[in-house]
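REQUEST ID: PR-0412
SUBMITTED BY: lab tech R.K.
PRIORITY: routine
TASK: structure prediction, single protein chain
INPUT:
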Amino acid sequence: MAALATALGTLPVLLSQKFSQRTYDGFLGFGAGVMLAATAFSLVMPAIAASKGAGAGPFEASLTVAGGIVLGMGLVLMLDRVAREENLLEGADAARSDSLKRAWLFVAAVAIHNLPEGLAIGVAYAGVDLAKAHSLATGISIQDVPEGLVVAMALRTVGYGRLFSAALGIASGLIEPVAAVSGAVLIEYARGLLPWGLALAAGAMLFVIAHDVVPESHRKGHSTTASIAVVIGFIVMMVLDTALA
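STATUS: complete
OUTPUT:
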């Protein structure tokens, strides 16, 4: 269900020929707001709760999540360095290379973010409260719709075709069912790893939002549109996450 929701989000990109720069910057800002709220309400807060549920005290739980956030940031920095040192974008001019890097880092961050979400679904369904598991899966699926959209948008606007952009958006969601099965099978281990996985995804997402997505949305002079979209995206995802909690 979560993977299909991500695929549903790619439909506007698949069906549309092209977007104006202002529209793209608005969608990028909206995506940043969505990811920011998802980081707070779907990753950081559940990570702290999971750590406390495993027996950690409030201070220890916060330190655990802080460590995971730093690791997530480090992972994105490592991906960036590999792209530069290995000349993965060789052949593109500087501006084009920079845009491609931002787009692919954003795609990677969303994919990393989907891993612990799928794990959380698997852990929930391996438990005894199916009603809560259904609620969690529904909430994650709803928030996956805009995630599929922003992944496809990020790739489409740096020059990739509609089919490729939509396919990558869909593929980013396929991580969730794989992780869900893993979480259900490895339930005893997954409970201990869940706080770290959630926090790592949060760190990756936070860094990409601050370092790449927001600056990119402001770069072409549409900062007001993008900033308003950030707030709208945050509100939409906050409501989705908290109303279905």
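NOTES: The CA atoms of residues 14 and 59 lie 46 Å apart.
REVIEWED BY: pending
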